[in-house]
Write a structure and sequence with these properties.
The complex is a heterotrimer. By secondary structure, chain A is an alpha/beta fold. Helices cover 37% and strands 24% of the residues of chain A. Chain A has 2 domains: 168 residues, P-loop containing nucleotide triphosphate hydrolases (Rossmann fold, 3-Layer(aba) Sandwich); 74 residues, no CATH class. Chain A has a 6-stranded mixed sheet with strand order 6-7-8-3-9-10, with helices on both faces. A 4-stranded antiparallel sheet of chain A has the order 2-1-4-5, with helices on one face. In chain A, α6 links the parallel β7 and β8. The longest helix of chain A is centred in the middle third of the chain and has 14 residues. Chain A starts with 7 loop residues before the first strand and ends with a helix. The C terminus of chain A is likely disordered. Chain B is mainly α. Chain B has a single domain, classed as ABC transporter involved in vitamin B12 uptake, BtuC (Orthogonal Bundle), CATH 1.10.3470. In chain B, 74% of the residues lie in helices and 3% in strands. Chain B has 11 helices and 2 strands. The longest helix of chain B has 32 residues. Chain B is globular. Chain B starts with a helix and ends in an 11-residue tail after the last helix. In chain C, strands 1-2 form a two-stranded antiparallel sheet. Chain C has one domain. In chain C, α1 runs antiparallel to α6, α3 packs across α9 and α4 packs across α9. The mean pLDDT of chain C is 91. The chains are: A alpha/beta, B mainly alpha, C mainly alpha. Chains in contact: A-C, B-C. Chains B and C meet through α4, α9 and α11 of B and α5, α10 and α12 of C.
Chain lengths: 253, 307, 319
């Protein structure tokens, strides 16, 4: 990895579904320790973009560079092993596992072989300790033994973040982490995220404008699959094209 | 291997493929629309054969057998749907498999209890009982050609129904996106009952048609059902066109394999080893073909569902 | 201390079942025929436990589990025909042959999921069935009679009813313990997580495929071991070992005791073997009773036998 180079760089990413361009020549970069946000109206292709970065979908053309390495052809689990941790717009945890075991599963992926067939995994301190740390980091330590399926919606959001942190990632790819959270939960999550500032590079795809402007160091605006503007929050807020394309929809909503 | 034998075996293979298609078509549509896996679909075929043979003996002749067996298999199919299947639509595939497995056990045993274990005979229809000269010196049974023709006709009818009627459009939509069809306000249960009934009757028809040339015995539906599964896995679940193509393919592979493999093996092995290896290979051929196709196209050749 | 007692509580259903099976010969179930029946139940229980790991642990609903069982049995036949009868060769050989079969068919089947997987495992099972029928060297459709049981360390321990009982019980206990450990291990954790949420598993950095395939091969080996024992129990091997109805029976055993519960699979196997025996004494057409019981248990007994008390309790409270 070139020192000082971006953790994540997208170069000319394109994806079409049928005749529709859902990702249209998208390029952007996330610097180490920076929080970069991608915003855009519904249907702008944000989640499709996240899928291409995480490896769930293959782009038609263009490249995804992660830590200086071309990962365009790698499947999701290989990118995860390189330190690319994502969360899902619709929370995705293992409902039958406790919160701790969910996080421990992520620790397991980066420490030691998982083809150990006989020694019980529960209670292995090498897994449980870092898993517990991750739960503490998001404020979920007291719910460690609760099955993920029994957690509240907001708690499951926190858990998903903890799972991502337990991977010791180089980049957090967060797909609308505040979606569906109540005002109080959202506030708590924003607190958690700003606590991560500087320690992780974060690509934040989010609808919640106040949260984005409070957290992001840089913002890219996506409209119909195209990046129409990129810059620091103040510049984006002032950009007339953004106001027309994006804030216009807000008025209508 | 003479050209004549090859021609005869190919025709036999196609005709077996047509029977497979008639069973597989109902199965694949039922699965496509309701996401319901029905192991007991093969018993419709068996019931068709038994009822056809019984009615033919009782009422005098093939045509009466056919005429009476079709509505009876349909009625039994609908009764099963009402008694058992409709309670399974919301359940997982595991429950569906087990419960319909139970239905097979009951019906296979019921057939044994009523008709005994000895195979039944069904007379050929007189009009179709002769042979026809395909080549000089090669007589092929007219009835087998009639099965082929009936199958092709039904495949055409099915294609028309699915592609060109309102119900067919719903079936296609349901196969690719069932929740959406339900969201459009279509009573998906009723649609399903229609599809199910139609499928049951097709399988019953296949059973009646097969009865004069195959042995009518308990469990005859089971092995055909498993081949029908292979057919829809190869063809792509929910796709009628895929079912037709792959049914013909499977019919040909199965029939030609059995007759050609031992000869083919003789090129490499001594006669007794060739017979042994040929028979073993012939039994595996269809499944090896399935594995090979799945290795390249996990969704089958003509998937109805995109992605 | 607390952990130890929790572990004991968790293991108690398995220990209870094994204890009952151990005590059976001394509780008036020592007659020849009953012992034969119990041995059969224990052997099928091993296969049912391995299937329970696949279905309840890995989410792989196989409708072809009789195939590795049959491959194990035919391995005994092949070795017998070649003059090899030493158990230390035969039993591992049977397990290895079944594992290889599972590995080869699983490599294709596990690429798919859901109903595809069910149909493909069923199809491969049928392939094994027909292939066995074409092996004229081993009796073809008529089957192959074993004139002597497998030996253990050169002794005829398996010929002795009680000796065979202990061997089956010991192996069943070992299978239960190993499967339990497997599911609780790091490997098992990935496997279980993949059943519940494969997307999450990929997102943290695991591809479920190799985990599922290895589990499929290992459980195939267990079924193969069971098949080798079954061949010894009946001293006869035929293609019907791999009939797809047996796969259905095994699936029923594996879930009757409660989906994913290993002792439940043992209870399910015992219950079904004994029920089949009892019904078949009543009438030749016992399947006319067994089939509806199967259907009713699927429709109404959602938690399996283990969930029965809770379900009955619910009914009583409501009633």
């Amino acid at each position: 990895m070139a020192d000082g180079g971006p953790v994540l760089e997208l170069r000319g990413l394109r994806k079409r579904f049928g005749g529709l361009a859902v990702t249209d020549d998208v390029s952007l970069a996330v610097a180490p320790g920076a929080i970069h946000a991608v915003i855009g109206p519904n249907g702008a292709g944000k989640t499709t973009l996240v899928h291409q970065i995480s490896g769930l979908l293959a782009p038609d053309s263009g490249r995804v560079l992660f830590a200086g390495e071309d990962v365009t052809a790698l499947p999701m689990h290989r990118r995860a092993r390189l330190g690319l941790a994502r969360t899902f717009q619709i929370t995705s945890v293992v409902p039958g596992f406790s919160a701790l075991e969910n996080a421990a599963l992520a620790v397991q992926a980066r420490s030691g072989s998982s083809f150990r067939l006989l020694r019980p995994a529960a209670g292995q301190l090498a897994l449980d300790d870092p898993a517990m740390e991750a739960l503490e980091a998001v404020g979920l330590a007291d719910r460690a033994r609760t099955p993920a399926g029994a957690l509240s919606h907001g708690e499951r959001r926190q858990l998903e973040l903890a799972v991502a942190l337990a991977m010791r990632p180089r980049l957090l790819l967060l797909d609308e982490p505040l979606a569906g959270a109540g005002p109080e939960e959202a506030e708590r999550l924003v607190g958690v995220l700003s606590g991560l500032r500087g320690r992780y590079a974060i690509l934040l795809v989010e609808h919640d404008m106040p949260a984005v402007f409070a957290l992001a160091d840089g913002i890219s605006v996506l409209v119909y699959g195209r990046v129409v503007a990129t810059g620091p929050p103040a510049a984006i807020r002032a950009n007339p094209e953004v106001r027309a394309a994006y804030l216009g929809e807000d008025d209508a909503a | 291997m003479s050209a004549q034998l090859l021609l005869v075996q190919s025709l036999n293979g196609l005709q077996f493929g047509v029977l497979l298609f008639l069973v597989a078509a109902g199965l694949t549509l039922v699965f496509g629309v309701m996401d319901f896996i029905n192991l007991a679909h093969g018993v419709q075929y068996m019931l068709g054969a038994y009822l056809g043979a019984t009615f033919a003996a009782w009422a005098g002749g093939f045509w009466w057998g056919l005429l009476l067996a079709l509505p009876t298999t349909l009625a039994i199919g609908l009764a099963l749907e009402w008694l058992v299947f409709r309670h399974l639509y919301d359940r997982d595939h595991l429950s569906q498999v087990l419960a319909t497995f139970g239905v097979i056990l009951v019906l296979n045993q019921g057939v044994r209890a009523i008709w005994g274990t000895a195979p039944l005979q069904m007379p050929l229809p007189e009009a179709l009982s002769g042979g026809i000269a395909l080549m000089p010196g090669l007589l092929y049974p007219v009835y087998r050609l009639a099965i082929l023709a009936a199958g092709v006709l039904l495949a055409g009818l099915l294609w028309f129904l699915v592609e060109h009627t309102r119900t067919g459009a719903l079936v296609r939509a349901g196969a690719s996106n069932a929740p959406m069809v339900a969201a459009l306000g279509v009573d998906i249960r009723r649609l399903f009952t229609v599809v199910f009934a139609f499928g049951a009757m097709l399988a019953g028809f296949a059973g009646v048609m097969a009865a004069p040339i195959l042995s009518v015995e308990p469990g005859m539906g089971d092995s055909l059902l498993i081949l029908a599964f292979v057919v829809i896995v190869i063809g792509g679940i929910g796709s009628v066109r895929g079912a037709l193509m792959s049914a013909l393919l499977v019919g040909l592979i199965e029939t030609l394999g059995k007759s050609l493999m031992p000869d083919l093996m003789r090129l490499f092995l001594d006669p007794s080893a060739a017979r042994q290896a040929g028979a073993a290979l012939a039994s595996m051929l269809v499944y090896i073909a399935m594995a090979a196709i799945l290795a390249v196209r996990p969704q089958g050749l003509f998937p109805a569902r995109a992605g | 201390m607390e952990r130890a007692s929790a572990a004991l509580r968790e293991a108690s259903p398995a220990l209870l079942l094994l204890g009952l099976l151990a005590a059976a010969p001394f509780l008036g179930f020592g007659q020849g025929y009953t012992m034969t029946l119990l041995a059969r139940a224990m052997i099928l229980a091993m296969a049912a436990v391995s299937l329970s790991v696949l279905v309840g642990g890995a989410g792989l609903v196989s409708l072809g589990h009789a195939a590795p069982l049959g491959v194990g049995a035919y391995a005994v036949v092949a070795l017998d025909a070649a003059g090899v009868t030493e158990g230390l060769v035969v039993l591992p050989g049977a397990a290895a042959a079944a594992a290889l079969f599972a590995l080869a068919t699983g490599a294709v089947a596990i690429r798919t999921s859901g109903v595809h997987f069910i149909m493909i495992t069923l199809a491969f099972g049928q392939m094994a069935f027909f292939t066995a029928g074409s092996l004229t060297a081993y009796g073809g459709d008529d089957g192959y009679t074993l004139y002597g049981r497998t030996e253990l360390f050169g002794t005829r321990l398996l010929e002795d009813r009680l000796g065979f009982h202990w061997v089956c019980l010991g192996l069943l206990a070992a299978v239960l313990l190993l499967c339990r450990l497997l599911l609780a291990s790091r490997f098992g954790r990935v496997l279980r997580a993949s059943r519940e949420n494969p997307l999450r598993v990929r997102a943290v950095g695991f591809e479920p495929y190799p985990f599922r395939l290895l589990a499929y091969a290992l459980m195939g080996a267990v079924a193969g071991l069971a098949g080798a024992l079954l061949a010894n129990a009946t001293e006869f091997v035929a293609p019907s070992y791999m009939a797809w109805q047996r796969s259905g029976d095994l699936l029923f055993m594996a879930i009757l005791g409660g989906l994913g519960s290993l002792p439940g699979a043992v209870a399910g196997a015992l219950a079904i073997v004994l029920l089949e025996e009892w019904l078949s004494e009543l009438t030749e057409h016992w399947r006319l009773i067994f089939g509806p019981l199967l259907i009713l248990s699927v429709l109404f007994l959602r938690g399996g036998l283990a969930g029965l008390p809770a379900q009955l309790g619910g009914l009583l409270r409501r009633g």
